[in-house]
Structure formats: structure tokens, C-alpha cells
Design goal:
The protein has a domain of 54 residues. By secondary structure, it is of the alpha+beta class.
């Protein structure tokens, strides 16, 4: 049988599928402990709704199909954030603010992202909608760290970003579109030499401040000290005040390393303020990213999205329950007893005197006859 899957789509099999499912449900349970209630949006929506407001940034990555009922174009979600914003503005428009909503599910993308060939991704996350308070930003960062820690992922680091800081400087100094684009390009590449050359050219004061911000990025304490010395226009000053407040709320005893990048912009085009990325220091993939934005109905919001393809490799080895094979006539009450004791119970479908051989063939750790004790399979597949 020839059954090739499209590029970027995949089957996830045992034990990876079970590991991912357990981690996802564990995250949702942790979110609930923080007061976040789960919402389940549809896989597809009308295109004009799905791509409204900040959703327009997802236009090029969205699959589209024609709806046979309405004859209107549908979009398959590439991200949950916009859908949660729509739910807040419609079904929950009169609910008290701030809203705390959680989600989990599959997203589909027209093209793969940088460093990840998959176009089918599992997301899980939260959105805090209706508050501009720095405490909301701090809560999301704390929740992100705590949720991963309770999965057993301990080598976490947080990279805080201000993707609106450089645009605010460009606006304040009325930098031209071409110069602005060149500056963003140089900063994306962390090219100090090119930014330095722009200081003497059309970049002027903006490039000079951008160079200082580029050099100041790094360890949080050092970065904040450098930021405090800069003279900033009013719009950028708002970014500085929020970052200062959030860092104060996180405190000096925050349990994971924090770095600050003042010039990073790529991938955060619809963010309207303080944003962040969560990394595992021993794995290449980012675990998640979040930040401040406005919904399509212009409500202030912040949130975090975790990517299960990044989280799965960072999980500690799982301790799987022992699999026990039982014969067809095994009683339901005895099965339930074994399950209550933490065993996985696999029932043989045909009577056989060689239950030990069936157990080994089905990759069970042992077997149990009705009324008998537990028997274990040794490394060679034989009874012991």
C-alpha cells in the first residue's frame, strides 16, 4: 500500500502520542488551577472572521476551502489566539473582565516555519483578556514557568522582548520606510557593524539608540541597568515603564534565568508590547511564546502558546505503568482491581495455555490468571 502524507504532516505513534497527550492534559489542569477555563473553538471559520484585526498577519499561512453550505471562503486556523479573542467578544462579551481562557488543539499552516518542517502542530495555551495591568504580564510569565516545571522540565529560560520599542523610536524620529526596513534587517541579523554605519547615515539618532539597545540586550539585570540610562520618546517610555514594573513583580528570586532582547521583532508582528519566548537550555526548539496584543475587538490581552513538538523532547523520561495480560475469561472486578493498582490490563482474545508467550508477543511486562498471582516476563520473553 502506497500512502504518502503531504509534506509537513505526520502520524504520531506510541509511546510519543501518549506522552504528548499526558503532557497536554497536565498543562490544561495546571491552567485550571490558575483560574483559566477551557474553550474549544472550531477547526475552521469564515475567512473574514478568522483573519480580522491582528489575524491579518496570518493571511499567508492560512489554508482555505469553500464552504458548501454558504458558498463563502473558510479558513483553517493557524493559531488559537484570534479565535479566543472572537469568543471573548461574542459569546463572552458580557462576562466580567479580565477573562482567563485556556485552549488546546491542532493548527494547520500553509507553509512550515523556520527550523520546524511540520505544518500540523499541537498548541496549548492561555489568554488573559481585558487588562492592561503589568501584573497580567507577570502572571502569564509565572504561569508559563510553573506549568513547565510541574511537567518536570527544569532547564527553562525566559527571553523577554519589546517588539514595539524600535518601531516607537522610528515613529518618533519620522524615519523613512526604506531606512526603517534596513534598520530592522540589520537588527534581525544582530549586525552591529551595519547599525554602526547607519548612525552616520540616514539612521541618525534612531540607529544610535538602536545600537545601544542591541549592545544592552542580554542578562536581565545588565539590560535593565542600561535601559534606565537611555533618553526615550513617550511611546518608548511606556514600554520601559511596563518592563520595569513586570521585572519588579517577577522579583530577584525568580526561579529561572531571564534575558532581555530589546531589538528582536521577527515572529511578533501582531504583538503590541512586552512579549517573551520560553526556551529549554538543552533543546533547540522553543517551548512556547507569548505577549501582549489587542484582539480584533480592540481589547487589551496577553497570553502564552506552548508548542507540543517543542515540549515533548524536553520532557523527562516517563515512567510507564506495567502492562499485564489476562485471559479472555478474566473477571471485570479483577481487571478493575489491577487498574486501580496502576497496571495497564490487556486481555487476550482467544483462550490459550501459553498466556506467557502471548504476553511477550504483545509487549506486556507480565500476565495474570484468574485467581492466580502476577507472573513476569523476563528480558528474553520467557516467564519468570
Amino acid at each position: 500500500m502506497h500512502a504518502m502524507l503531504p509534506c509537513g504532516f505526520y502520524d504520531l505513534l506510541a509511546p510519543a502520542a501518549a506522552t504528548e497527550a499526558r503532557a497536554l492534559e497536565s498543562l490544561i489542569k495546571r491552567f485550571s488551577s490558575y483560574g483559566y477555563v477551557r474553550a474549544i473553538p472550531p477547526l475552521m471559520e469564515f475567512e473574514d472572521s478568522l483573519l480580522a484585526g491582528p489575524g491579518a498577519t496570518l493571511n499567508r499561512s492560512t489554508f482555505r476551502v469553500m464552504d458548501g453550505e454558504s458558498q463563502r471562503m473558510l479558513g483553517l486556523r493557524t493559531d488559537h489566539t484570534m479565535q479566543i479573542g472572537r469568543i471573548a467578544a461574542t459569546g463572552l462579551y458580557d462576562a466580567p473582565r479580565p477573562l482567563r481562557l485556556a485552549y488546546a488543539g491542532t493548527v494547520l499552516r500553509l507553509k512550515a516555519g523556520e527550523g520546524n518542517p511540520a505544518r500540523q502542530l499541537e498548541q496549548v495555551g492561555v489568554e488573559l483578556i481585558g487588562s492592561l495591568a503589568p501584573a497580567a504580564d507577570a502572571e502569564i510569565i509565572q504561569l508559563a514557568v510553573d506549568s513547565l516545571a510541574q511537567l518536570g522540565i527544569t532547564d527553562i529560560s525566559i527571553d523577554i522582548l519589546l517588539p514595539t520599542l524600535i518601531p516607537a523610536l522610528c515613529d518618533a524620529h519620522k524615519l523613512g520606510a526604506a531606512t526603517r526596513q534596513a534598520l530592522h534587517h540589520a537588527l534581525d541579523r544582530k549586525d552591529e557593524a551595519l547599525v554602526q554605519r547607519m548612525v552616520a547615515g540616514e539612521g541618525g539618532k534612531v540607529a544610535e539608540q538602536a545600537l545601544l539597545l542591541l549592545r544592552a540586550s542580554g542578562d536581565a539585570a545588565t539590560a535593565m541597568a542600561a535601559l534606565a540610562t537611555l533618553e526615550l520618546p513617550a511611546a518608548a517610555e511606556a514600554d520601559r515603564r511596563r518592563l520595569t514594573a513586570v521585572m519588579g513583580l517577577l522579583g530577584s528570586a525568580f526561579p529561572v534565568p531571564v534575558t532581555i532582547d530589546f531589538v528582536e521583532y521577527r515572529g511578533f508582528e501582531y504583538q503590541t508590547g512586552l512579549s517573551f519566548t520560553v526556551f529549554s537550555r538543552h533543546h533547540r526548539s522553543e517551548l512556547g511564546r507569548g505577549g501582549r496584543y489587542r484582539t480584533a475587538s480592540n481589547e487589551p490581552a496577553t497570553g502564552i502558546t506552548f508548542y507540543m513538538h517543542g515540549i515533548a523532547p524536553a520532557l523527562p523520561p516517563a515512567r510507564l505503568p506495567a502492562r499485564i495480560m489476562v485471559p479472555p475469561h478474566f473477571s471485570l472486578a479483577r481487571k478493575q482491581q489491577l487498574m486501580a493498582e496502576g497496571y495497564v490490563v490487556v486481555q487476550a482474545l482467544k483462550p490459550t495455555p501459553a498466556l506467557a508467550m502471548q504476553a511477550a508477543a504483545q509487549q506486556c511486562d507480565g500476565w495474570c490468571e484468574e485467581g492466580g498471582g502476577m507472573q513476569w516476563v523476563d528480558a528474553n520473553g520467557a516467564g519468570c
